[in-house]
Specification:
The complex is a heterodimer of chains A (about 210) and B (about 120). Chain A is mainly α. Helices cover about 85% and strands about 0% of the residues of chain A.
Chain lengths: ~210, ~120
């Protein structure tokens, strides 16, 4: 097993910063072998010249960086993270701007058509559409970030909850510092519905993943 | 492991060098030996990053396979990753070398790549 064999205590270690850069840039499948190769060559070179070995390690890090970074950027892992971040940002913007642009427009539109007090109806429509969007964001986040080896509860806690906090931060902020027509009760309803919406979205994504297998 | 959707394309120069090194090294092919083999034979400096990016690409194309080997103290306790050329890789290497030879037949002076290939 990797990690069972420890290097001798007095062995000269590669430059810490350079090794850290390689760890960050290398993709997961090759990371351990790549670092092991560099360490092997470093150890062999350090027997002849410790300074030369350090210089070699730094030079390898510098010339390998563009290849590793490019590969990392093109990897499936990065693509999935990018889509998940886009979903988080999209849901965040939806909650943030919905109040200002769409909710007021919806209220005016309903009022114009029905000539009646439609504020309640507009709010309801607004909340329903918003929660549908949050559920979609939840399912996208779950589909892209949930790990199969982890339990649903662990995935929920480690992946969905942090994303949910970002998504719902505009509503939380508006609740603490009210600057619009919506009162505290409305914000509580909004938050109270958003959490189950995220959860339902994640459940749907996991159900779809299970069906595909 | 994904394979190419379209028909096989000719290999790039570095891909040819890597595959040829795998043929030469056989069971002893892993990052350090592949890098040394190419450097010793071509005189070209090879970065670890470029090598592993190419190996990963060749593996994705289905030309190369890999397995995890033994860990040593010299490697900080990390395991080696041994690479082996597959039948598809050997066929592709043959095709690319033939195509290259056909294109360069009668061309003088021969580009650097042929000199490198001739030394393999």
């Amino acid at each position: 097993m990797a990690g069972d064999i420890k290097p001798p205590r007095n062995a000269l270690a590669p430059p810490h910063l350079a090794r850290m850069l390689i760890v960050i840039m290398a993709s997961a499948p090759e990371r351990a072998a790549l670092i092991g190769d560099m360490e092997e060559e470093f150890t062999q070179q350090s027997r002849r010249s410790p300074h030369g070995a350090r210089a070699w390690y730094w030079r390898q890090t510098a010339i390998s960086a563009p290849y590793l970074a490019l590969k990392r950027l093109r990897s499936e892992e990065t693509r999935r993270l990018g889509i998940a971040l886009a979903a988080i940002l999209g849901a965040f913007l939806m909650i943030h701007y919905w109040d200002i642009l769409i909710a007021r427009g919806t209220a005016r539109g309903f009022a114009a058509v029905t000539q009646a007090q439609t504020y309640f109806l507009a709010r309801t429509v607004y909340l329903l559409v918003q929660m549908a969007g949050v559920a979609v964001a939840g399912s996208v986040i779950a589909a892209l970030t949930f790990r199969e080896e982890d339990s649903f509860a662990r995935n929920l806690l480690h992946r969905l909850v942090p994303s949910g906090v970002i998504i719902l931060s505009p509503a939380l902020f508006a609740m603490i510092f009210p600057a619009d027509n919506y009162d505290l009760s409305f914000r509580l309803i909004q938050l109270g519905l958003a959490l189950p919406a995220l959860y339902i979205g994640a459940r749907i994504a996991m159900w779809l993943r299970g069906r595909r297998r | 492991m994904r394979k190419q959707k379209s028909g096989p394309k000719n290999l790039g120069e570095f891909e040819i060098l890597v595959l040829a090194a795998l043929v030469r090294l056989g069971a002893d092919a892993y990052g350090v030996t592949i890098r040394r083999e190419i450097e010793d034979r071509t005189g070209r400096a090879v970065s670890v990053g470029a090598l592993y990016s190419t190996l990963a690409r060749l593996e994705e194309k289905g030309y190369v396979g890999s397995r995890i080997g033994a860990a040593t103290a010299e490697r900080g306790g990390r395991a080696k990753r041994h690479y082996v050329i597959k039948a598809e890789g050997q066929a592709q290497l043959q095709r690319s070398a033939t195509a290259l030879g056909a294109m360069l037949k009668g061309v003088s002076p021969w580009p650097e790549i042929l000199n490198r290939l001739a030394t393999l």
